[in-house]
Design goal:
Layout: H1 6-11, H2 14-24, E1 28-29, E2 31-36, E3 42-47, E4 50-55, E5 58-64, H3 71-80, E6 82-87, H4 93-98, E7 117-118, E8 127-128, E9 133-145, E10 150-162, H5 175-178, E11 182-184, E12 188-190
Antiparallel strand pairs: 1-11, 2-3, 2-6, 4-5, 5-10, 6-9, 7-8, 9-10, 11-12
Length: 203
């Protein structure tokens, strides 16, 4: 095995380095985050740096890049305090990837990619129609990460929509059966395959 050092990383061009380092963290969930500004204009963008932070209360976070790189999602969440997280299904793959393009302010990605807003009475921000798992989130905190100018955005689950046939009696959700996709690097998409379910580990 080759040992890659920070010097090796610096020798790579910007895109190569980003792709390489992004893969090192392993497979990540492909998630579309929907927000709205004060005028009700929706923004939808693909995020992969999603992290479970606790079950009681149910907290889920994501890493938002520096504001100058992706300003709309963070600004909308700061403004309204709400957002939705939507797993990407296999038939949504290309449209979801296209949301990572930098569309100008005042433009909704929903108008330019093959994704449809789905308004629900239970939540103020729309979801992505056809997403296999849809989460309504209320903002808890935005924590700046000073080292690289990114932000950890923490939300508390307000509602979750998914097919109950994918939920086992013990609460386990078969995301592979649901059709949720995973990502590696900047543009590599995977369809997970269930291997086995192990019992609770004890000493």
């Amino acid at each position: 095995m080759k040992c890659y050092t920070p010097l090796d990383l610096q020798a790579m061009d910007r895109y190569q380095r980003a792709n390489f380092v992004n893969c090192l963290g392993g497979f990540k969930p492909a998630t579309l985050i929907v927000t709205q500004n004060q005028s009700g204009l929706s923004n939808v963008a693909l995020f992969t740096n999603i992290v479970h932070l606790g079950a009681d209360p149910a907290l889920i976070g994501f890493i938002n890049r520096p504001k100058e790189a992706t300003p709309h999602t963070l600004a909308n969440i700061e403004s309204t305090g709400f957002f939705t997280m939507n797993h990407v299904g296999i038939d949504q793959l290309e449209a979801a990837h296209q949301t990572s393009a930098k569309y100008p302010d005042g433009v909704s990605e929903f108008d330019h990619v093959a994704l449809t807003e789905h308004a629900r009475l239970e939540f103020s921000v729309p979801f992505v129609a056809g997403s296999p798992v849809q989460l309504g989130m209320k903002l808890v905190d935005i924590m700046p990460i000073k080292h690289n100018g990114t932000y950890l955005v923490i939300g508390e689950l307000a509602c979750a929509f998914l097919n109950e046939s994918h939920v086992a009696a013990d609460g386990f959700i078969d995301l592979a059966e649901a059709g949720s996709l995973a990502v590696s690097g900047l543009q590599g998409y995977y369809q997970p395959k269930f291997l086995q379910k192990l019992g609770y580990a004890r000493p």
